[in-house]
């Protein structure tokens, strides 16, 4: 037995950072590998905290289109002196910046996506740029059918153009596409555009012991503990 | 032993229609299945012949962006009366138009791409739209790392923006990307932008007995008899 929602949806887009991959652990580890004296978790949180203000500047039209790799680098250069790491040279900064291409998936991600792919078209719907998402997928074995990115639509989430691009490229109605994310704000943006929505719990996203609101929220169409539970609920 | 070219190239884009998939046989078969009285091969050639004039109108800026599915449909509606098929209703026309999503790959394509994928990032670089290329890949088992399309860059080949988009999304130099195609004109466009080029023979592209120029052309960096030969030459 599959639900009307499972029948109606044809393509599933996934938020990536935090939802598919564990950025906190991967970034912490890369920082501590080159600077053991630094609190890697605090550095990861600070880097990530620069993310939304950077998008906001692009979304307000202040900069033209800037891909996430370049935004990450701007934030990184501002951050290094605060952590006593201004000594890092250009090559080290570029290598570190591409740590976002080398994030590890959550343990259930590859197996869950592989099951979901049998029945649905699956893709990232991420603010990450195309090259970042492709390199990440190739390294981690994420079995995407295609790479969709804010870069394709030249609009960062939560701009409606980014959400509506998912059904748009397949000539579907908004309700035939679904966004999966561990962030309420992202899902609310998709829902306002008419997409179906699934919340997935990622209690460790912000690091061990840090607060993360994973409570069931009746606004969203589905709530799953991980991608295997999502696949179960969708009959995959 | 691998060549300097094999070492330098990081991503390989593929022309799709004719190079990866056999449009002539697949379209002929679909036409003859619904209209046995029609010469399917002649219909396929006529449909395909509308392709470049349609791109030219978009490239001259006469229409704004129009995706290939919509161009195929305009050409189809013009073509049906010429073949006595004006009786086809809307549903039949839409189904037939999506025959381009259901093209079969050449026999060597999946095996060759699978080998090339071990070492390179591989993707279509096609005038087909994103949805068409995704549906085709999912049906045929084409193991792309990502889907690149004229739709991503809003420019049809041979506009330079389409060719330069391939290295661009990966922040590579043009010579670190290669186009594979069975069409000299397409490769010449890529070469003019600085991309590496590989010609692949597809003697049956235009149908059995039809002329197809597959001669070795010294302008291009590589010449291969099929994708397995290409993988051999690249040491994959």
Automatic annotation (TrEMBL), chains A, B:
It catalyses: an (S)-2-haloacid + H2O = a (2R)-2-hydroxycarboxylate + a halide anion + H(+). InterPro entries: 2-HAD (IPR006328), HAD-like_sf (IPR036412), HAD-SF_hydro_IA (IPR006439), HAD_sf (IPR023214), PGP-like_dom2 (IPR023198), S-2-haloacid_dehalogenase (IPR051540). GO terms for molecular function: (S)-2-haloacid dehalogenase activity. Its EC number is 3.8.1.2. Transmembrane segments: none annotated. Keywords: Hydrolase. Pfam families: Hydrolase. It is an enzyme of class 3 (hydrolase). Belongs to the HAD-like hydrolase superfamily. S-2-haloalkanoic acid dehalogenase family. Catalyzes the hydrolytic dehalogenation of small (S)-2-haloalkanoic acids to yield the corresponding (R)-2-hydroxyalkanoic acids. This is (S)-2-haloacid dehalogenase. It comes from Quisquiliibacterium transsilvanicum.
């Amino acid at each position: 037995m599959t639900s009307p929602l499972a029948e109606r949806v044809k393509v599933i887009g996934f938020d990536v950072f935090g939802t598919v991959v564990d950025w906190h652990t991967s970034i912490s580890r890369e920082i501590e590998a080159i600077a053991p004296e630094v609190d890697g978790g605090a550095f990861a949180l600070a880097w990530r905290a620069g993310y939304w203000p950077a998008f906001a500047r692009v979304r307000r039209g202040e900069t033209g289109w800037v891909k996430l790799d370049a935004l990450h680098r701007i934030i990184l250069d501002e951050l290094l002196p605060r952590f006593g790491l201004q000594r890092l040279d250009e090559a080290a900064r570029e290598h570190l910046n591409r740590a976002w291409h080398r994030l590890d998936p959550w343990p259930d991600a590859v197996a869950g996506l592989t099951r979901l792919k049998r029945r649905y078209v699956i893709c990232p719907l991420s603010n990450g740029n195309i090259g970042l998402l492709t390199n990440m997928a190739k390294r981690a074995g994420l079995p995407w059918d295609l790479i969709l990115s804010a870069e394709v639509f030249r609009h960062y989430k939560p701009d409606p153009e980014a959400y509506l691009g998912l059904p748009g490229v397949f000539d579907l109605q908004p309700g035939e596409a679904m966004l999966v994310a561990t962030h309420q704000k992202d899902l609310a943006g998709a829902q306002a555009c008419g997409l179906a929505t699934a919340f997935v719990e990622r209690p460790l996203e912000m690091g061990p012991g840090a607060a993360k609101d994973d409570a069931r929220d009746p606004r969203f169409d589905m709530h799953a503990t991980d991608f295997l539970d999502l696949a179960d609920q969708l009959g995959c």
